[in-house]
Design goal:
- The chain has about 100 residues and is an alpha+beta fold.
- The chain has three helices and five strands, in the order βαβαββαβ.
- The protein has a five-stranded mixed beta sheet with strand order 2-1-5-3-4, covered by helices on one side.
- A hairpin with a 2-residue loop joins strand 3 (about 60-65) and strand 4 (about 70).
- It starts with a strand and ends in a 5-residue tail after the last strand.
- The model has no long low-confidence stretch (mean pLDDT about 90).
């Protein structure tokens, strides 16, 4: 088990009744899928807000970042950077803005 730090956008913090950063216990290997599975298990009100209920694909207006890298298009089972897996750096879920 690894303790992971996750930062959520304001609208998801409000829904889950949490502060900016939360800590989760995540099974190894630490991947987007295992982090999101742990997040949704601990905060069931977030199910369907980050990933689609049926496909488990990332919602269009959310992005995933870690260690200053956009991981939004990485495979869900790809290992996250060691700094995230060790709890040194947070896994960021960020609301994207569309428009022009």
């Amino acid at each position: 088990m690894a303790t992971i730090r996750v930062e959520l956008p304001q609208h998801l913090r409000t829904l889950a009744h949490v502060g900016r950063e939360i800590q989760l216990e995540v099974e190894s290997p630490v991947t987007q899928r295992t982090v999101l599975d742990a997040l949704e298990a601990r905060y069931p009100m977030l199910r369907g807000t980050i990933r689609d209920h049926g496909t488990l694909q990332r919602r269009a207006f959310l992005r995933f970042f870690a260690c200053e890298e956009d991981l939004s298009h990485e495979a869900p089972d790809a290992p996250l950077p060691e700094a995230v897996a060790s709890g040194k750096e947070p896994f960021l879920i960020v609301g994207a803005i569309a428009g022009g």
